[in-house]
Amino acid sequence: MVKCDIKDKSLAPKGKLRIEWADNQMPVLKKIRERFEKEKPLAGKKMSCCLHVTTETANLMRTLKAGGADIVLCASNPLSTQDDVAASLVVDYGISVFAKKGEDTETYYKHLMAAIEHGPDMTQDDGCDLVGLLHKEYGDSYLKNVIGGTEETTTGVIRLKSMERDGALRIPIIAVNESETKHLFDNRYGTGQSTLDGLFRATNVLLSGKNFVVCGYGWCGRGLAMRAKGMGANVTVTEVDHVKAIEAVMDGFRVMKLEDAMSFADVIITVTGNLNVVDEKHIRLAKDGVMIANSGHFNDEINIDAIERLSVSKRTVRDYVDEYTLKDGRMVYLLAEGRLLNLAAAEGHPAVVMDMSFANQALGAEYLVRNADKMEKKVYVLPAELDQEIARLKLESMGISIDVLTEEQIAYLSSWESGT
Ligand code: NAI
Question: Rounded distance, CA 315 to CA 304, Å?
């Protein structure tokens, strides 16, 4: 039986058209779906999935269902749900969904609980909220049936690894984020472009000539800095890791402490996965009119309480733009309440990037069914052959073929005796 708590079922026709549009740009997932249709590798498996409810996720859900899974989907962020997609999943594809854009914290957790109470054999998570709750609040009675799960993002992987270190992790997890065909593309090109898309939709700002600060030069930060530079912004990077910092310098960016960038920064975007990266001391030094946003997983990269404390008034001046007036009259603009800008104010990653990420999710679920009995309660990476296979399918869909090693080259590369 299809269950749901969604905003409005009548939005389904619009959602269906958008899901189909995304599907046209997800050839790898489509190939996997066609195979799953025939082979039913997930037959009889109940899955609780906690992901951003977007058009691309809808196509992943269709793929899992084609593979035989019985799914309940909830949102991995209160602001990222696309209500028309949620409606279409329920109405057109018969998939249970618990998600409403803008849901409050209480509803968000109620929806997570609805997904867990489906009684899953497998989980799919994006940020570890579902698996965290499953461990903390549900325990043995639910965990005993779970053969394993997959995790989509960097922040979730960090949390799961710390659960593993503390001996608290009770199921094997495949960290999809660690696949090369995930983080090299989704985090870099996906976040790079879509975060700017969110910035433009929220503010209509012209980036050219702006002083643009990227906090964090990991996979997401690299993509964001590269794209902002390409649009004519003067890009400054802040980091805490010396290797990443020197890499940013060599890539041609200014690198400094955030404190030192505050006096000239027009736009600041955090992508660190860390806490209070933009803190009270930074707000005190902010340039009048600065726009501050986050594209890291949680809404705690910007210390919003500090902004509130330092302000005399706040008003919402556009969708996703809160204007704070500081005590000395300076303005600070906080975008999307500090939540993932690309998913809150835009549509998240383009489908063509999510194609590879979600191919990893689908193959991860299949891998778990085949191998969970041999796996320990640890965080795993998908085997390199699957990464290669996803990249191969993607290239094939683009009509690109590459060279193959000759027998002579294989022998040469595997020998220590050849060469002079
Ligand atoms: P990463 O681990 O590759 O990079 C994070 C970087 O931030 C590291 O280089 C780290 O040294 C740096 N950092 C940590 N604390 C800092 C601080 N106080 N100041 C400056 N730099 C600091 O992680 P990745 O893959 O780039 O992900 C970053 C965040 O974005 C995570 O929360 C991840 O879950 C999220 N994410 C968001 C996506 C989106 O659609 N918006 C997509 C993929 C990931």
Answer: 14
